[in-house]
Predict the structure.
Amino acid sequence: MAEQQSSEKDVFTFELIAQEGNARAGIFHTPHGDIETPIFAPVGTKATVKGITPAELEELQASLILANTYHLFLRPGEELVNEMGGLHKFMNWPHPILTDSGGFQVFSLSSMRKIDENGVNFRSYIDGSIQRLTPEKSVEVQEKLGADIIMAFDECAAPYDRKYSTEAMERTHRWAERCLKAKKRKDQALFGIVQGGIFPDLRVESARRISELGFPGHAIGGLSVGETKEEMNTMLEIVTPILPANKPRYLMGVGSPEDLVNGILRGIDIFDCVLPTRLARHKAAMTFQGRINLLNAVHTHNSHPIDETCSCYTCKNFSRAYLRHLLVAKEMVGATLVSIHNLHTLLELVRRARRAIIEQRYSDFAAEFLENYH
Amino acid sequence: MAEQQSSEKDVFTFELIAQEGNARAGIFHTPHGDIETPIFAPVGTKATVKGITPAELEELQASLILANTYHLFLRPGEELVNEMGGLHKFMNWPHPILTDSGGFQVFSLSSMRKIDENGVNFRSYIDGSIQRLTPEKSVEVQEKLGADIIMAFDECAAPYDRKYSTEAMERTHRWAERCLKAKKRKDQALFGIVQGGIFPDLRVESARRISELGFPGHAIGGLSVGETKEEMNTMLEIVTPILPANKPRYLMGVGSPEDLVNGILRGIDIFDCVLPTRLARHKAAMTFQGRINLLNAVHTHNSHPIDETCSCYTCKNFSRAYLRHLLVAKEMVGATLVSIHNLHTLLELVRRARRAIIEQRYSDFAAEFLENYH
């Protein structure tokens, strides 16, 4: 295992380019290209970012995208993806990909689940069949999917239940070790996940324990699951200083503009979230000032784009009146165009944050952003 | 009116480049660019080609697209489109656009309709309200929408009812004259429509009458509405020789590959159809050899594209296995990718047909195509 880790270290180096306070600008090197951090990863749950072709993702200059092990395990199955040459080839994304472990979805999406020390039984959302994931199985599935970054199988507890948070955290630690042992491929980086709910002492314990295991990167799980934004920020302030500075830090499932700015301020390098594409399908445009509900009648006669200052394909070519028409008529292109804008907004936000860190003006940038964001 | 027509003639000239038998290659000049004929026009019913952005249409080298007056009249309304600068600007398509008159949809889509000599009352599919279109109103709506090519308001009868076909044809002729009188804009070409069901004598009469009225282009309506392919081809053979050779001929609502090849053989220059995008949403890929149902289990492990010889974005980048996965999972991008392929197939077919006509080998091309198409 020592050899395996040193091999990973050669491939997955993380260069710190600049730092201002806890905010970091870096480059994470992967077999499918460099990821300039901080970065936001669009989510392609079922090996497709909803409504967006890979060509459109390229034009958005996305670098890292995420796919969900839970969904792909159930359909089309990791064997098929592997047979088709792995996720990169299957979905035509030659750049970095991250897969989660399936842990979060097993706990959040499955109607029936039964946890034991060895793993979790759950009911498939597709056909109701009983399925099982274990730490070893999750790693095996993720090795067959073939993403650049893969995640340890973890247990995510409800944030305010101390007893369950403790148990879930401890099991997550034992499972993290089992994932490391189970891992065979040397061209994938396995990240460990910190749990502990909203309990500072648990988060400290988890961050220390996970950091000791020698992962090439660390994730913070179990946040943005019902706690307040203040609680999330407090947990980040507790956890990030414990995590090794020379490895990337990934805040899982977080993606509102203010959460990105606050996370970067607290030392986070990687984010992912379904928010930009989900909001687009539910008619909301994201801007640096807040959300716009495009279904609102006030936009009916509006010949201006979502954001006059935005350089995305949607804002350069389409009025709010047209987007509203498409959304009212439930036309697919409406969701696509608003998704393009929303993804551009988050990708542009992390690009601006990165420049601000490099130019040592991120704290001002963040303060100004948060003041103007409603 | 004489002045108006000569003004139209200056803008909307039709150059015949080559002819082989009845098949023609030409260029139809419009204010928004040249249309090389024969051409297939993708349908953007509600001012959007379903699942396809204008950028994707550009990449497909589409030249002419169609939008439906019936749908846009009901929502968002021609006033809004006009206020937003017209259809070209509203939907971001700077190339030629054609709008139909609403006649066909009033007769095919509305649950309640009441025809009188002056026009048609019908029930809106959106809110059940009673709406009215007349020849004058259809022209007014189309002038506000602002397409390059607009259509006379016609009445489409069931193909086998001689009595109704006669009445509908005669009313269509009277309405055609009223549309010509109602027309004000000089930067739009108003096409007349030939009706007459599957009755040769009615089609002859209609083609003669409509040709006399001095339209800058002529359409053949009321086909592909339930008659056999042989009947359709017979009607084309009767009608096209009567229509002036120096003006474009448009076969409305027809778009299967074999119908395109057969229509071109009989002197048709312009086609439109929802088939390529509708079939894509219903999982079928169009090829030069026939249709492929991508949901079929036989494609589950197929690492090849829809068509190895196809140069479209979809075939260059995605396997049948991946497309099938997207379609099974009901992912929007599945419909988009198959729509791109299907539109490319029809656009490539008319490009090849045009080259074959120019090179005087279209009859061989058509015979070979029809022999291999199943």
